[in-house]
C-alpha cells in the first residue's frame, strides 16, 4: 500500500495572514526598491522617536519657552524653503546619490548636536540646518528612486516606501512613549541620539548599496550649474499640488483642534482618528498608486484628491452642526477616512506629475522646485485653517471649493501641455 505524503506547505501559507497582508502592501517588487524601503523605515523610525519627544525635551529639560521652540522651527522651515532648490541643483551636477548620502550624514551630525544644545541661539542655528536637510531630502530621494528603479515600478515603489515610512514613524513614536514613561533627561537624550545614529547607519548602508554612483543623467556635469526652473506650467503644477498637500496640516492641526474644540467629539477620540489615518495609509497607499503610473491616471487622481478633501470639509462642518455626540463621532471618523483618501491620491499623483514633467538632465532641480509648493503649504496652511476656516461661518465649505478647484486645474488648465502621456 502506497502512502502519499502531503506536500510541504508553501512558506507563504505557513505565515500569519497579517504578515502576508503587510508584505503585499509594503514590500517593493525590485531588490533595490526593497533596500531603499529598508533604509526609509530606519529613517522614519528615528524620526518618530524624535518628534514624539523633542518639544517636551526643549521646554521641560533645556528650559526654552514654547514660543522659542516655535520660532526655531519657523526658522528651520524658512531655511528649507530657501535652500531646497539649490541643493537640487547641486544634486544634478555632482551626482544625486552622493548628495543623498551627504545629506544623511549632515542630518546625523545635526541631530547629535541637539544633545549638546543648551541655549536658544544654538537651537535656532541647528534647527535651521535641520530644516534645510529635511526639506531637501524628499526630492533627492525621489530622484534616486527614479534612477535606480525601473520606470514601470517607480510609482509602486514610491507608494510602498511611503507606507513603510508611515509604519516606521508610528513604531518610533510608540517606542518614544514607552521610553518617556519616567521623563528623565537620559531617556530624552537616548531617543534624540538614537535618531542621529539612524542617519549615520543609513548613510553607511546607502554607500554599501552603491547609491553614491547614481546620477540623473550621464551629461549632467556639463550643464549649467545654477539654472532655476522657469517652466511656468511646471510652477503652476507645483502650486496646485501644494494646495492639495494641505492634508498634512489637516491631520496635525485641524483634526485635533477642530474636533476637540468645535464639535461634541470627546478629546479621547483624537488619538484614534490619527491612528486610523496611519493604518489606512499603510494598507492602502500601494493600491491607490496603481492607476497613477500614467499622466492621465495622475490627472484623475488629482481630481479625486480634491473631491476627497472637500468631503473632509463637508463632514467637518456637519460634525460642528450636529447636537448628538455619537453622530459627531461618526462624522469625525468619516472625515478622517476622506482625508486619508485625499492624501493617498495626492501623493501618488504628485509622484508621476513631478517626475514625468521634469527635464531628465535637471530632474532633481525640478523635483526640488515642485517641493516648494509643499513647503509653502506648511508655512501658510496652519494660519489659513485656524484663522480663516475656523473663524468664518461655513469656512469648511469654502475650503472644499478651493480643493475641488485645485484638483480640476490639471485637467482644465494644463491638459494639453502637461497631461499628455506622450509628453
Q: Could you characterize the architecture of this molecule?
A:
Keywords: Cell membrane, Membrane, Transmembrane, Transmembrane helix, Transport. GO terms for molecular function: transmembrane transporter activity. It comes from Mangrovihabitans endophyticus. This is Membrane protein. The chain crosses the membrane at residues 36-58, 70-91, 111-132, 168-193, 199-222, 234-258, 264-284, 296-314, 326-345, 396-414. This protein has 2 domains: 16-222, Growth Hormone, Chain: A (Up-down Bundle), CATH 1.20.1250.20; 232-412, Growth Hormone, Chain: A (Up-down Bundle). The longest helix has 32 residues, at 325-356. It is mainly alpha-helical and 423 residues long. Helix 6 packs antiparallel against helix 9, helix 7 crosses helix 15 (363-389) and helix 10 packs antiparallel against helix 14 (325-356). The chain is built from 16 helices and no strands. It has helices spanning 11-14, 17-26, 31-51, 54-61, 66-93, 96-114, 120-148, 154-179, 185-209, 232-244, 247-261, 269-289, 295-321, 325-356, 363-389, 395-412.
Amino acid at each position: 500500500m502506497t502512502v502519499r505524503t502531503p506536500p510541504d506547505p508553501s512558506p507563504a501559507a505557513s505565515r500569519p495572514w497579517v504578515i502576508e497582508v503587510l508584505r503585499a502592501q509594503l514590500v517593493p517588487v525590485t531588490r533595490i526598491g526593497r533596500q531603499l524601503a529598508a533604509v526609509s523605515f530606519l529613517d522614519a523610525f528615528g524620526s518618530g522617536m524624535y518628534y514624539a519627544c523633542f518639544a517636551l525635551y526643549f521646554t521641560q529639560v533645556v528650559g526654552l519657552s514654547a514660543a522659542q521652540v516655535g520660532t526655531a522651527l519657523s526658522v528651520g522651515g524658512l531655511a528649507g524653503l530657501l535652500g531646497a532648490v539649490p541643493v537640487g541643483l547641486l544634486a544634478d551636477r555632482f551626482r544625486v546619490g552622493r548628495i543623498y548620502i551627504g545629506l544623511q550624514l549632515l542630518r546625523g551630525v545635526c541631530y547629535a548636536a541637539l544633545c549638546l544644545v543648551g541655549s536658544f541661539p544654538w537651537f535656532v542655528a541647528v534647527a535651521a540646518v535641520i530644516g534645510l536637510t529635511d526639506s531637501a531630502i524628499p526630492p533627492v530621494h525621489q530622484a534616486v528612486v527614479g534612477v535606480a528603479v525601473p520606470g514601470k515600478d517607480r510609482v509602486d515603489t514610491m507608494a510602498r516606501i511611503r507606507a513603510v515610512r508611515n509604519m516606521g514613524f508610528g513604531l518610533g513614536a510608540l517606542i518614544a512613549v514607552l521610553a518617556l514613561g519616567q521623563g528623565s533627561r537620559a531617556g530624552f537624550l537616548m531617543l534624540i541620539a538614537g535618531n542621529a545614529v539612524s542617519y549615520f547607519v543609513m548613510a553607511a548602508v546607502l554607500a554599501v548599496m552603491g547609491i553614491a554612483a547614481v546620477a540623473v543623467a550621464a551629461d549632467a556635469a556639463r550643464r549649467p550649474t545654477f539654472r532655476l526652473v522657469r517652466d511656468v506650467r511646471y510652477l503652476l503644477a507645483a502650486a496646485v499640488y501644494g494646495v492639495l498637500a494641505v492634508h498634512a496640516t489637516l491631520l496635525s492641526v485641524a483634526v485635533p483642534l477642530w474636533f476637540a474644540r468645535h464639535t461634541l467629539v470627546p478629546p479621547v477620540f483624537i488619538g484614534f482618528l490619527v491612528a486610523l489615518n496611519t493604518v489606512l495609509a499603510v494598507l492602502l497607499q500601494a493600491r491607490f498608486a496603481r492607476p497613477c503610473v500614467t499622466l492621465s491616471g495622475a490627472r484623475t487622481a488629482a481630481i479625486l484628491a480634491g473631491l476627497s478633501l472637500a468631503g473632509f470639509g463637508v463632514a467637518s462642518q456637519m460634525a460642528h452642526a450636529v447636537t448628538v455626540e455619537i453622530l459627531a463621532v461618526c462624522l469625525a471618523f468619516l472625515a478622517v477616512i476622506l482625508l486619508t483618501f485625499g492624501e493617498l491620491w495626492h501623493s501618488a499623483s504628485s509622484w508621476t506629475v513631478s517626475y514625468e514633467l521634469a527635464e531628465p538632465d535637471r530632474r532633481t532641480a525640478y523635483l526640488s522646485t515642485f517641493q516648494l509648493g509643499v513647503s509653502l503649504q506648511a508655512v501658510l496652511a496652519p494660519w489659513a485653517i485656524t484663522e480663516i476656516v475656523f473663524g468664518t461661518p461655513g469656512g469648511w465649505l469654502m475650503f472644499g471649493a478651493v480643493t475641488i478647484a485645485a484638483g480640476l486645474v490639471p485637467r482644465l488648465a494644463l491638459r494639453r501641455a502637461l497631461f499628455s502621456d506622450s509628453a
